Amino acid sequence: MSITLKALKKSPWVFHVNTGACNNCDIEILDCLTPKFDIERFGIVLVGSIRHADVLLISGPVTKNVLPRLKRLYEQAPKPIKVIVVGACGCTCGIFRDGYNIVGPVDKYIPVDAYVPGCPPKPETIISGVVKVLSKL
Amino acid sequence: MDIARLLFNYIVFPGLLFSAVVGLLTTWVDRKVTARVQWRVGPPWYQPFADTVKLLGKEVVIPATARRTGFLLMPIVGLAAATLASTILWVVNLDPSRSFVGDIIVVVYIMTIPAVSMIIGASASGNPLGIVGASREMKLLFSYELPLIICILTAVVKVGSFSFERILAYQAENGVILWSLSGIIAFIVTIFCAQAKLTFVPFDIPEAETELAGGSHIEYSGAALAIVKLNMAIMFFVLPVFMITIFWGGISFSGWRILTSLVKYVVIVVIMILMKNTNPRVRIDQAMRFFWGPMFVLSVVAIILARLGL
User: What average pLDDT does this structure show over B3-22?
Assistant: First the structure.
C-alpha cells in the first residue's frame, strides 16, 4: 500500500452535499461532529470547498434542479474521491420515488462507494459506512 | 563551505524541514486544545502529517478561469518567505554573532510576504469567493501592520538598535522587555496582531469557513493546498518565536534553558488558541476599527512610555 493511500485513510476530508433531502440526514451527519461521537479523532473534518474534499457525502434523492450541480461537483473534485450516500432517499429515492421532480437515486449518475440506509441513519451507522469505505481502499 | 552551511540552515535546520515539523506539531496542539475546550478527544499527534502527505498525493485541479502561473507559484513564494523568516530568527537566536544591522526590518518585511502571496494567489484563482477573500485579506493586512510595526519599534526604542543581537544582549543584561510597562502593552497588542496575521478567529475574515467556504484558498487542491497549509503552519511557528525574541529574552538550547524556551513558546501558542476558541468572528470594518483605534492608541502609548524609559 502506498504511503499517500495510508495517509488518506487517516485523514478523509468530507464535503457534504444535499441533493434534495428533507434535512433529517443532514442533522444526523452534523451529530457525528458533536463531542459525543467526535469523528475528528479519526481525522475526519467537514470542509467548505469541494477542492479540499476526499469524500463526497450525499444525502437526498436527486431532484431535477440539483442534478447538473451534482455532476459538476463530482467532476470538480480532485481525484481520488470516494462517494458515500447517506439515507434511504439517496440509496433508492425512498418515499419520494414517485415525485414529479425526482430523477432517480444517486448511483444512476455517479459511481457510489458506500450506501448508508436508514431514515435517517444513526450517527453510528454513518461512521460504520465511512469505515467500510476506508477499509476497502 | 559558507554556501553549504547557509543551504543547510535554509533547507534542514532551522529552515524548511525543522520549521515544517515543529509548525505541523503546533497545528496539532491547536487542534487538540480546541477539541479539549469543546469537550472532545481530538485527533492523534500525527494528524497534520497525515493530512499533508495525503494532500501531496492528490490531484491538483487548476480551474479554467485561473491564471495558471500566479495561481501555482504564489504558495511556493509564501512558503519560501515563511521559511526564510524562520531561518533568520533561529540562526540569530542560536548564534547571535550572525546577526546583522537591520535584520528586524528584514524579518518584519518577509513575514508580510505570505499574506501578500495569498492575496495574489486568491486573485489569480478566478473564483468570486476567492477574490472576496483576497480583498478582505488586503484590508486586514493594512489594519494590523500599523500597530504591529509600532509595537516592534517600542522594543527598538528601548534598546536603541535595529539588530536582534543587541535586543537579545539588552534583555540578557537588563531583564526581559516584557516585564516593563511599555513592554507588556506592546506584547498584548502584538498578540492581537499575530492573531490577525495568522487569520485566526476572531480575525479569520479572509477564510471564513462558514461564509466564504475557505475564502482565499478555496480553489487550491492537492499539493498546492498542502503547501498553503504548510505555509500557515510555519507562520504559526514563526510568530511566537518572533515575539519571544523581541519581548521575552529569546530562545536558547543550552542546558535547562531549553525548558524555559519551550514553556514560553507553549504559553504564547496556548493564549492564541484560547483566544481563537472563545471569540466569534468580527466583520472586516470592525477589525479595521479595532486595529486603527484602540490598538493603534495603545501601541503609541507603549512607544511613548518606552521613550520615557518605563
Answer: 82
Nearest to A51 among B41, B49, B61 (CB): B61
Q: What is the pTM of this model?
A: 0.88
Tell me which residues of chain A, numbers 78 to 137, contact chain B at a CB-CB cutoff of 8 Å. Answer: 78-80
- The rounded distance, in Å, linking the Cα atoms of B269 and B260 is 14
Look at phi and psi of residue B67 and say left if phi exceeds 0, alpha if psi is from -120 to 50, else beta: beta
- Residues of B within 8 A of A41 (CB-CB) are 40-44
Looking at residue B6, its pLDDT comes to 80
Question: A-B interface: how many C-beta pairs under 8 angstroms?
Answer: 83
Q: Chain-wide mean pLDDT for chain B?
A: 86
Question: Where do the domains of chain A lie, and which CATH numbers do they carry?
Answer: 10-134 (3.40.50.12280)
Q: What number of other Cβ atoms are within 10 A of residue A13's Cβ?
A: 19
Whether B60 and A79 lie within 8 Å, measured CB to CB = no
Contact criterion met (CB below 8 Å) for B301 and B188: no
What would the pLDDT profile of B193-211 be if each residue is shown by its tens digit? 998 888 888 888 777 776 7
**ipTM at complex level:** 0.83
Residue B184, pLDDT above cutoff 80: yes
Which chain B residues are Cβ-neighbours of A76 within 8 angstroms?
Answer: 61
Contact present, A92 and A74 (Cβ < 8 Å): no
Per-10-residue mean pLDDT of chain A, 137 residues long, equals 76 87 86 84 85 87 89 86 87 85 85 87 86 80
